[in-house]
Specification:
alpha/beta, Rossmann fold, about 190 residues, about 40% helix, binds flavin mononucleotide
């Protein structure tokens, strides 16, 4: 069984994190979840009072962001990579500068140093030079910078379908086949309404 770390930060888009966790579970991936303290407000706002519980229930293992002694803080932990979704500008900058100031940023730093796949889904608009600079630094370190932009060619009819397609691409970039969750170019899109 493969293992992946999923980091959830306080940017908007916690529904994407939930869908990523569910798709990874469908793909029989053992997920290790770390949710930043900053994410609690956005999760409550976007997924409701039970949002955090939903995320935790969708993960195989949950780690507290303060627990820098968790297995995922070490390069000796065998994981295929990490997805940070959604990724706030704060966490993006912290990862780009190797801060490791909580378990999420530490696990991302470890993922980079171990030359494993790090996929970040930064969510902010518009972007100033500091945001772009942090993204460039991370791209140069080998991270996949994957803003959660919808693939319109799949003609998603609902927000849920759009979330599913975006999440599937993050899963795919992390090296896991999202299977039927991802419509690939050349496959039949759903009929026009
Ligand atoms: C409802 C809500 C939505 C937010 N959306 C974003 C966002 O899209 N992008 C972002 O960078 N920060 C956003 N923030 C601000 C972050 O949560 C804040 O900067 C926090 O300190 C991030 O900490 P973390 O990276 O440790 O999670 C949002 C905050 C709230 C309450």
């Amino acid at each position: 069984m493969s293992r992946l770390i999923v980091g959830v930060t306080g940017a908007s888009g916690s529904a994407l994190a939930l869908e990523v966790l569910r798709q990874l579970s469908d793909a029989a991936v053992e997920t290790h979840l770390v949710v930043s303290r900053g994410a609690h407000a956005s999760i409550r706002h976007e997924l409701g009072e039970t949002g955090l519980s939903l995320l935790e229930a969708a993960a195989a293992r949950v780690h507290a962001p303060e627990n820098l002694a968790a297995p995922i803080a070490s390069g000796s932990f065998s994981a295929g990579g990490m997805i940070v979704v959604p990724c706030s500008m704060r966490s993006l900058a912290a990862i780009a500068h190797g801060l490791g100031d909580n378990l999420l940023t530490r696990a991302a730093d470890v993922t980079l140093k171990e030359k494993r796949r790090l996929v970040v889904a930064p969510r902010e608009a518009p972007l100033h030079e500091g945001h772009l600079d942090a993204m460039l630094r991370l791209a140069r370190m080998g991270a996949v910078i994957a803003p959660p932009v919808p693939p319109f060619y799949t003609r998603p009819a609902t927000i849920e379908a759009m979330i599913g397609e975006i999440a599937a691409r993050l899963v795919n970039w992390a090296g896991i086949d999202p299977g039927e969750h991802m419509t690939r170019w050349g496959e039949t899109p759903p009929p026009l309404r």
